[in-house]
Amino acid sequence: MFDSTATNLSSRYAWNNLIGDQDAIRFLETAILPPYVNACRWFAGKARQQAGFRIQVVHEIAFLSDNQTDDKAFLFIVEAAYADGETERYLLPLSFVEAGHPDASSIAPKGILTRADFDQESGLVVDAIYDERFRQALYFNLAHQQTLDQTSGKLTFHRGKGLAVDDINGLITSRVLPVDSSNSALVFGVSDQGEKYFLKLYRKLFQETNPEVDLVSFLTEKSNFSHIPAYAGSVIWEQEGVPDITLGMMQRMVENQQDSWSQTGDYLNDFLYAVPHRLFTIREDVFDRVELLGRRTGQMHLALYDPDSGDPAFAAEPFTDDYREFIIRRFESLLERRYNLLIDNYTKLDPLAQSLAWVFMEAKEMIDEFVDDFRTRPLESLRIRIHGDYHLGQVLATGKDFIIIDFEGEPESSISERKIKHSPLKDVAGMIRSYHYAVSAKLFGSTETAGIEPDHLQRVSERWFKLIRDTYMDAYLETIGSPHPLFKNSNEVNFLLLVYLLEKAVYELGYEISYRPAWVKIPLKGIMDVIREIEKIRIADPTRNSELPLLQMGLLQTKKE
Ligand SMILES: Nc1ncnc2c1ncn2[C@@H]1O[C@H](COP(=O)(O)OP(=O)(O)O)[C@@H](O)[C@H]1O
Ligand SMILES: O=P(O)(O)O[C@H]1O[C@H](CO)[C@@H](O[C@H]2O[C@H](CO)[C@@H](O)[C@H](O)[C@H]2O)[C@H](O)[C@H]1O
Predict the structure, then answer these.
(1) Above pLDDT 70, what percent of the chain?
(2) Which residues form the Maltokinase N-terminal cap domain (predicted)?
(3) Which range has the worst mean pLDDT, 47-61, 168-182, 381-395?
(4) How far is Cα 198 from Cα 175, in angstroms, rounded to an integer?
């Protein structure tokens, strides 16, 4: 049987009978998967103390073939265990490419798990996304809405409105899109029409339907919002008595040169070059773009607010006590973790970040008071399903317009948290934070502004940000229209926006401390802005009997111009 003395995988079984060779499976689990999976961008457990990988379930997908061979790919559901905390499950499709196969030499090295011999046939075990036969089989099954029975349940392939009837039997080309992200992206082209479909194969699996499929299929099939890539289908693993698990989703392919993060960065270059000359310039077309994004965001939320859909998963809901408690619990735990993280990393921060961190620490009681206010204040605005992880990087720029992508929700949240309804102002807050990031990163990270006083840069970037924020917000609110059941009145809009801005900036603080310490001051500055607003509300409210002293914002001024 399996020869465990060889470094490479070798089995007397044929590839198609791999599952029968328990020794080979064990070798994969212990010797091949750990180094391979740890090198994959999509594996989120790299920093955790690992306790091993286990192949939990194996599905089979037969390749399309004229010559009656029974070649196939296996979809491995791999469980990653850790010393602490919950296990995770990942999707790993594998295929065997024989040495003589014409594609064998062109497989991307990062897709090769191991050399292998199966029944004396030599070749490579590869991530099947790099195998054209697997991609063709996926497309065929989706286009023809196949159901494939498996030993654990079945795989069902669903076709969405976005897949054109003419393309069901069309001649299809395919490739892997070279984006390094938390999932894998495959692109399918139709002859004479170029690349037309984008299939995202999810890697980390949820115990339920992926929120992205809920949202994208709802927007495509039940609304006329056209600024997302239309839903073209999905791959679902169905089992008796347990929720369906989404393995992949196909959408229309969007031709785009860049996302809005890099487009905003380009626009900011003009602004940046003028700063050393003490000129404040924003081109009109920048305002036009921001206004358009505000309108598209509003239209997306109007499409998600559909009182007539009859689908309870999308029905609007009030600000219940349960929801408020959920937000508060989550925020308080986040806040505690962030304070600890700041304390642990304080000495590594630059002086500006240190003074911002200091004011943030001082503001603890004021934040607690604000949280209490959120617990008890009457709120008549409504909550709906939203994008959930909305920032400039999630909006593709198509030239004259925008297409919104990646409806998977917040990376750190559990699947049930991602399906919770929020005020759409949570998305709005995400985009506002992103504009703040864009200008701060540009002004504080460019050589053009290296010799300029930080206080001056701060004021200039604040001016840019406020103009852009207001332009975005005005266009957004105008699109929603007033009165609208989503927003009771402008007081509630302002209050809720602060809640979500604070939550987002506190979340970002952790992301930056862990990944980009030089950017820690960006979310800290965002937190300061919210704190200032909270303080204004406090001062303006004569009924408030708060003993809290005013914050020492003056600490932040390093030098007056
Ligand atoms: N429908 C699409 N058409 C063209 N490119 C797309 C499409 N959807 C996503 N992309 C590209 O793939 C990248 C990753 O997609 P995204 O949905 O953000 O996946 P992930 O959740 O894995 O980050 C995007 O940044 C974008 O460049
Ligand atoms: O895009 P992801 O879903 O992986 O989100 C994570 O990474 C984002 C950075 O790419 C991070 O976003 C933050 O930085 C952006 C600029 O790089 C900025 O536009 C966002 O507003 C800001 O939140 C996100 O927080 C993190 O979860």
Answers:
(1) 94
(2) 36-131
(3) 168-182
(4) 10
Q: What pLDDT, in 10s, does the model give residues 305-323?
A: 988 878 899 999 999 999 9
What the block records as the tokens of 434 is: 């992103």
H or E, element range at 134: helix 132-143
Q: Which of 93, 82, 212, 108 is nearest to 160 (CA)?
A: 212
The reply to whether ligand 1 has any atom less than 6 angstroms from the CB of 405 is: yes
Longest dimension (CA), the chain: 85
Are 114 and 134 in contact by the 8 Å Cβ rule? The answer is no
H helices within 236-306, ranges in order?
Answer: 260-274, 284-304
Tokens of 159: 């076709």
Torsion angles phi and psi, residue 124, rounded to 5? -125, 140
Residue 116 and residue 123: Cα distance in Å, rounded?
A: 5
- Span of 1-5, 125-129, 368-372, 408-412 with lowest mean pLDDT: 1-5
Which amino acid is present at 180? D
Helix, coil or strand: residue 95:
strand
- The complex scores an ipTM of 0.96
Number of Cα atoms under 13 Å in the Cβ half of residue 133: 24
> Using 50, 70 and 90 to split pLDDT, how confident is the model at 330?
very high
CA distance linking residue 45 with residue 485, whole number of Å: 42
d(CA 128, CA 275): 51
Picking from 557, 524, 531, the residue whose alpha carbon sits closest to that of residue 363 is 531
Query: 521-551 pLDDT, tens per residue?
Result: 999 999 999 999 988 887 777 666 666 665 5
Task: Tell me, using a 6 A CB cutoff, whether residue 212 lines ligand 1.
Answer: no
Residue 199: band (very low, low, confident or very high) from pLDDT cuts 50, 70, 90: very high
In order, the DSSP letters of 493-530 are HHHHHHHHHHHHHHHHHHHHHHH-GGGTHHHHHHHHHH
Q: Is the CB of 388 under 6 A from ligand 1?
A: no
Q: Which atom of ligand 1 is nearest to the CA of 254?
A: 3
Closest Cα to atom 22, ligand 2: which residue?
434
- Which domains are assigned to the chain? 1-128 (no CATH), 131-253 (no CATH), 258-555 (3.90.1200.10)
Query: 220 and 228 in contact (C-beta within 8 Å)?
Result: yes
pTM of the model: 0.91
For residue 534, give the 3-state DSSP assignment: helix
Task: Identify the H or E element spanning 157.
Answer: strand 154-159
In terms of DSSP bridges, do strands 88-98 and 121-127 run parallel, antiparallel, or are they unpaired? antiparallel
Q: What does DSSP assign to residue 348?
A: G
Q: How far is the CA of 437 from the centre of ligand 2 (A)?
A: 9
Cβ distance 220 to 233 under 8 Å? Answer: no
pLDDT in tens, 246-269: 999 999 999 878 999 999 999 999
- Among 102-116, 127-141, 178-192, which range has the highest average pLDDT? 127-141
Query: One-letter amino acid identity for 313?
Result: A
Side chain identity at residue 120, one-letter code: Q
